[in-house]
Amino acid sequence: MTDYQWKIFCDFKDDLKNMVAKWQEQSSNLVDLQKKAAQIAKTPDYSFETPVVYNQALEEISKDNDIKLIVIGDNPGKDEQLAKNNKYLVGQAGKIAEGFFKRNENLGIDFRKNVIILNKTPIHSAKTSQLKTIAKLGGEKIAELIKESQIWMAKRTAQLHTELNSQNFCENQTELWLVGYSELKEKGLFLPYREELKKSYSADEKSKSNWQNVFVFQHFSMNRFTIDLKNYIEENCQNHQINRNVLRELGQIHRKEIFGD
User: Fold this and answer.
1) Contact, 255 vs 237, CB < 8 A?
2) Cα–Cα distance between 168 and 146 in angstroms, integer?
3) Positive or negative, the Cα torsion across 247, 253, 258, 261?
4) At what angle do helices 130-165 and 191-200 cross, to 10 degrees?
5) pLDDT surpassing 70 at residue 170
6) Helix (H) or strand (E) holding 179
7) N or C: which end of the chain has fewer CB within 10 A?
8) Of the candidates 193, 25, 187, 36, which has an alpha carbon nearest to the alpha carbon of residue 125?
9) Which H helix or E strand runs over 97?
10) pLDDT digit string, tens, across residues 138-148
């Protein structure tokens, strides 16, 4: 990263850390709500340790890292919220993602060195759908907290992405991947995130041009990303090879489905 990019990243990282601490303070009963939501969904017992999770992997990124990709998951799950981890996409979905990039070395991406991993909200739940139950059980205060966290994440992530690319040549542009889009649809849990993200990329000409570096994919969990990509390649690509152009084509198709452009 250039000096400018490194400052942009460090400012974002510090802002996120401060916001996570703020949201944690505003939700003293969040762990109880998360436990109740898990019980209602009959989730097997596990240790509830971090209700709002800051991704400690951000602290491992150095100025020497070449950031090629920003990946946006849904929210921290059971493995991510454990105190020994406090990192995003370290469970089964993360292992699938890491394996995908290892198998496709031609993409030139190390999932743990060239990728900034973020979420649509840092608020934990065993399954993403349980956030709806948490919001319902917690009343207006918790529902607003979940919404506020999405809006903040969308706005600041778009700013980070745009500023990082303001220092890059066209062929070296950092891409942003939204992985997991079912809850981005109308009436979905992450509708506030979707609306704020599109608004943020419409803020000025620099942001508008960077929208072409945003792509939408199925989630890595349950191999949905891999299956969707395989089906697309079999139907549309004669050589059946995974490359950047194929990924961009599929990501644009899903972006149009979700954002209408």
Assistant:
1) no
2) 33
3) positive
4) 10
5) no
6) strand 175-179
7) C
8) 36
9) helix 92-103
10) 999 999 999 99
